[in-house]
Amino acid sequence: MHLSRFNPLRFAHLPTPLEPLPRLTQALAAAADSSGRGRGGPDLWIKRDDCTGLAGGGNKTRKLEYLLGDALANDATTLVTQGAVQSNHVRQTAAAAARFGLACEIILEERTGSNALDYTLSGNVLLDELMGAKIRRVPGGTDMNAQLALVAAEVAARGETPYVIPGGGSNIIGALGYVECALEMVTQANAIGLEIDRIVTATGSAGTHAGLVAGLAVMGADIPVLGIGVRAPKEAQEASVYKLAVETAALLGHQDRVTREMVVADCDYVGAGYGLVDEAVIEALKLAARTDAILLDPVYTGKAMKGLIALSQKGAFDGETVVFLHTGGAQGLFGYQSVLDGHLS
Description:
The chain is α/β, with parallel strands linked by helices. The protein contains twelve helices and ten strands. The protein has a six-stranded mixed β-sheet, with helices on both faces. A four-stranded parallel β-sheet has the order 5-4-3-6. Helix 10 crosses helix 11 (301-313).
């Protein structure tokens, strides 16, 4: 795959580590023993895309390397994007704008309905403001694509050149970042003799999941990807990922390599809704932190780990080598202090 022809900028700290999670593996095996299944559970590894380096890192940094390359090629002066109040994508976009001397206009959707001060002012929101982004807030359920178009028109009317980045950076340009991640991960695994049976990651705006599927398919790497849904129902999530994966593979000249069967999402662990935390999410946060000192976030990686743990307890990964793709977001923990208070003992 000749990805350099898409002219990405290079500011992420890559390659990110691919490393074992021995104590979490042991904990899941112990749970299998106690369930009466005998020795089971996965051999668990982690791909540390929380370590990409841009204002705390996260998966959107890979996407932004390609998106910023395209923005600057089109003489953009202002990045325009959107997300939920505690959006990791928005934080990394604000950081990329600051890094390259661009203005940044962001739209935050009050998607969870929370009015808690830590949620509305701390965590990622504090970092957005620190990096100089102009913030607009809209009620939950707002047509965010229409809002993006409105803000972009206002920017253009001021004589500036807007570059609109969709939520999550999830279009065919952004998804190239995870085509590259797929190549990077397989290269790392080959170098250490690691045979990966499955990749598990959070799936939301679809770009990370779709990029991985497209990258692995174009490479011919026979590694299934399981997305743990954080918002949409299974049918809608899989349709969104499949569409973007096919489009991304087509951009690379191999549309036919992606099949519908390659796109799998398990959306049984969303809980009460996007960004809403339940006890199983908190237990997943605690288990990851107290075994291998991995900091997850309550919205994406926490729910993905919740799903991984639950599926492991059902025997879904027995005997498999599973790589958990950590998409970052620990900065958002500080926006959930009031939710987590009293649950961490």
